[in-house]
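Consider the subject:
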Amino acid sequence: MAHFSADDEAMLQAMLRQLFQSVKEKITGAPSLECAEEILLHLEETDENFHKYKEMMHSLKNIMMIVVESMINKFEEDGLRSQERQKKIQKEKSNSYCTDNCSDSDSSFSQSYKFCQGKLQLILDQLDPGQPKEVKYEALQTLCSAPPSDVLNCENWTTLCEKLTVSLSDPDPVFTDRILKFYAQTFTLSPLHTTKEIYTSLAKYLELYFLSRENHIPTLSTGIDITNPNVSRLLKKVRLLNEYQKEAPCFWIRHPEKYMEEIVESTLSLLSVKHDQSHLVSQKILDPIYFLALVDTKAVWFKKWMITTAVQQCVQYFELCETMKADEALGRSKPYGNKQKTFYYSGQELQYIYFIHSLCLLGRLLIYTQGRKLFPIKLKNRKDLVTLTDLLVLFTQLIYYSPSCPKMTSSVHLENYSPANMVTEVLRILCDQKECAIECLYNNTVIEALLQPIHNLMKGTKAVPYCSETALIHIADILARIASVEEGLILLLYGENMNSSEGKSLTGADVIAQFSKKLLDEDISIFSGSEMFPVVKGAFTSVCRQIYGTCEGLQVLVPYSLHESIVKAWKKTSLLSERIPTPVEGSDSISSVSQESQNIMAWEENLLDDLLNFAATPKGLLLLQRTGALNECVTFMFSQYAKKLQISRHRKFGYEVLVTQVASTAAGAVALQSSGFINALITELWANLECGRDDVRVTHPRSTPVDPIDRSCQKSFLALVNLLSYPAVYELAGNQGLPNKAEYSLREVPTCIVDIIDRLIILNSEAKIRSLFNYEQSHIFGLR
């Protein structure tokens, strides 16, 4: 026991005497002597209690000395350990150039010291499996409330992480949910080098979970019921892992490779888990990839993580489609509106979700040059390597071999997740990347795979039922995208061997032209009466439009007389549109008649547009004139031009080019005049030249023009220049006199080429000059 020293006691007594003396002095001048005596008496009583106070101080000082001495020793030990850890961290930072946001560890060292040393060990003890659940709940609550940086910087963090990973197997759902909450909080608020440890531990836990025979993992035959508590908890853990996977690519640029390598390796280790395959396929235990596909069907997380398994899954799905009739597949499907199926996924549905996941994953991979370099690859049960071309052929075959109505969880997603639609979406993306398209799609093998169902239909083989109208529309879409690019068009016209000396064989363009002609002439009876038949015809004539819109393409397609087939189909459709009865108000058939009318009008306009595109080349324009439908096509073009509709991305040019081509002939110029196109063009020109914008002219008077032609009139100027070829000038202005009126009204607007010459060029009277608001600018425009 420690005691006060003699100096301490003397100092304390001197302080008390000084206090006593000051009180005496204060009360000396007090008005009442009795009051002073009471105070002195009270002080004497206080002096008697001094001995008790002295004993208490001895005891208190003794306890404090022991505590402080213990804390100082502990602090020195922890300080040395902390310095060693800081040196180690700094060394790692200097070696790996890791710039994580850990700078707050020093500033909060005192708080970390208080939390880690006092609480973390206690939390570790409270998380022991033998503890009551209330104790474990309280430990996790404390852990979630503490700053993540304080927890992660503690020396016992590794031990805590291991204990949390083991605790994920606890049967108590509330307890495991709180662990996942701590994991999620750590992912969100902590730097990479610490969240990496959480991710790898979670991935390792899931890997061991799937490898353990004690856990009852569903099989393909039983399917997945997500209302099952065990399945629900497993999906929560997989989803948490997946959410971090989606964010992981954000760190790749800012952090060293070794951190990302650990994440990738732990992920691949998890996804490569395989069970014994000696039993039947239907009894196959579901691998982790099935659960990952269930929470992230379109493989958003994927950049460059797995290849072979995805290709294997696509091959297996294709083989399944080959051996399964479409009608049998649909017959086994249950109604999508069945609420009992909402939370249950059968083995067939899980296989399909896994297939979609793999398909999207591979589609993302093929966009990148390095991803394409990963091929060819070796698959199980296949002697030959799978090349890039083999994969694209497989994708193409999936369009017309897969069922048209897959089993999915909701009818809303039926179209988006159909096999043909998903494959077409991937191929569209590849077509839009020129370098990728040249390497993947522009070869004879892939083109032949796309044309295979067309060959079957024209030959009338038994394989026809597999190819639906929807599949043909998807194939036509891909072919149109290929034909819209020069390299793809050359491939369709001549194949890969342009200078081959072999006998003439049908090229892709030949097959497409023959098939389109049969569709237009309705020589293929299998689709007769189908509501989708006009859409199929329109899709393939659109492919032909891409071909005959060029001189080389038209030269190849001339022997098939497509223009005659198109105009024949247009005349037939035009007669049908005239026979549609006028709907009667209140009739039940009004909606069906209206829909039928819209479909026929849309098909009629589509055929006119196909005919109009023959005017893209001089020879094509001649063929268009021979059909006798030139006036109708020009009128249609003017109606579309007036609507200012956006040009399709597959069009090589807008209507302005077609106007120039049409105006290059006398018949075309007359058709433009009669359709009202020239009148509209001149009216627009006059509005820009003479009228201007009223709201601007009031506040900002127009400055003196310095440009040869005002910018607002440049478009009209170019349109007129392109329009007025020699044949057009002769037809529109030849043998016609100028009006040369004595007076022109300010509201009088020109309507034809002769009026423009009279009002803007030959200004031979004061009346013409006075009729112009902007005489100099308008006259210069006319002269130019």
The first strand starts at residue 224 and ends at 225. Residues 595-675 form one domain. Confidence is low (pLDDT under 50) at residues 26-33, 93-114, 325-340, 405-414. Residues 293 and 354 are 6 Å apart (CA to CA).
